[in-house]
Write a structure and sequence with these properties.
The chain is of the alpha+beta class. The protein has one domain: Aminopeptidase (3-Layer(aba) Sandwich), CATH 3.40.630. The protein has 4 helices and 7 strands, in the order E-H-H-E-E-E-H-E-H-E-E. It has a 7-stranded mixed β-sheet with strand order 1-2-3-4-5-7-6, with helices on both faces. The protein starts with a strand and ends with a strand.
């Protein structure tokens, strides 16, 4: 079940984000995103979500999270597909995202979802062992 997330979901979003991704965003951060960005979640209790920031006919995926205990079950694909439908209805024609170049599972997921690489930001993400580049991807939505 895909649903729109709101500030009341912010604690669950922050907990899931912390469990899944470093660095994590706080409940306050999540509440702010729920007030200004498109936030869609999967299931109740929350098993995954996406946060997308829109500007005119463009959108950027800020984060997409799946509970590590429920990965490879189609959750990320479901929330991404729902977000694309929502964005297309709003007149968005292109979606952007960034992913660490060492995050091979995410890169494979985005490629399988139709995203194409178009750039690289050197030394963008900080790691304990140093810095790693961000790969930039985009996907054009059907009009």
């Amino acid at each position: 079940m895909i649903r729109i997330l709101g500030p009341a979901d912010s604690a669950a979003m922050a907990t899931l984000h912390k469990k899944s991704i470093l660095p994590y965003w706080s409940a306050k951060d999540m509440a702010g995103h729920c007030q200004r960005d498109l936030c869609l979640g999967y299931s109740d209790p929350l098993r995954g979500f996406v946060i997308v920031q829109c500007a005119a006919d463009q959108a950027e995926i800020l984060t997409i999270v799946t509970d590590p205990d429920h990965r490879k079950s189609g959750i990320a694909g479901s929330v991404l597909s729902a977000a694309e439908d929502n964005l297309s209805a709003r007149g968005v024609t292109i979606i952007f995202l960034e992913v660490a170049e060492d995050n091979n599972p995410a890169i494979a997921f985005y490629r399988s979802a139709g995203f194409e690489p178009f750039g690289k930001r050197p030394a963008y993400y900080r790691r304990e062992t140093g810095r790693v580049a961000a790969l930039t991807f985009r996907k054009r939505l059907d009009a």
